[in-house]
Write a structure and sequence with these properties.
The protein has about 300 residues and is mainly α. The protein contains 12 helices and 3 strands, in the order H-E-H-H-H-E-H-H-H-E-H-H-H-H-H. It is globular and about 65 Å long. The N and C termini lie far apart (about 65 Å).
Amino acid sequence: MNQKNTTEMTEFVLLGLSSSSKLQPVLFFLFLVLYLLTILGNGLIIITVTFDSHLRSAPMYFLLCNLSFQDLCYSTVTVPKMLSHLVTYHKTISFQGCITQMFFFHFTGSTEIFILTIMAYDRYIAICRPLHYKLIMSQRTCWVLAGTSVLGGVIHSITQVVLILRMPFCGPNELDNFYCDIPQVIKLACTNTFVVGLLMVSNSGLVTLTCFIVLLISYTVLLVRIRNHLAEGKSKALSTCASHLIVVTLVFVPCVYIYARPFQTFPADKLVSILYTIITPMLNPLIYTLRNAEMKNAIRRTWNYSI
């Protein structure tokens, strides 16, 4: 395919969640409420950790603040565009806008996965090596780990986007989703996509699946160790690890479903996309705050101080 054909695609049409004119206003208000709750919940965690000196200096809450920021960005990459399409007739996105959305979608998503992995490491050190915890998880180490997760997200996302940009697009231009993502975009390329699809599955799906399995094993070992060996603070440690495990499951299971298989369309794809782009970023703050007395007390202190 020559270079001229690769530039003919100027925009994509997003088919969205529903073509029903009666259902779209209902979906708009529903997802607007969920998005506002996502902003409120994650923003509250970020503000609380930032202004509470005790939480700010604790590695677990420093990482939780980073996770909330990524959740906020992750949802913002897709939801505002989806909301605008629910109230407008022209449901299009430019080719450059589509590529940009894919870059930040995978950047924030992969960074979040790396942060969750670091949080598992943090809990392992806190439970298995408590006497060395402050030395190993120093503030400098936390900043380095957070920076590394961002760098890893950039590298992952650039790799994905470069592979897409090297492919020719000359029509059709309809994406059966409410945002731009690789599984849908790659199907529209005017070339054989088998090798690129295999690289995408390896880069996203297998890496995500491997991380998920490692994290499940890690938290299982930690929960067994807490139950059998930890005496002091057992309830708090169990609650913390359980919360982390719930969030890990909510984040990883949909990603494994979408990316660790051939890029084919299945009826549940859009529902799963809603789960990990809208529902999970909203639930994460609730899971962490409702099961964490220290966080709830810090929120009360911050609220009382502000008023």
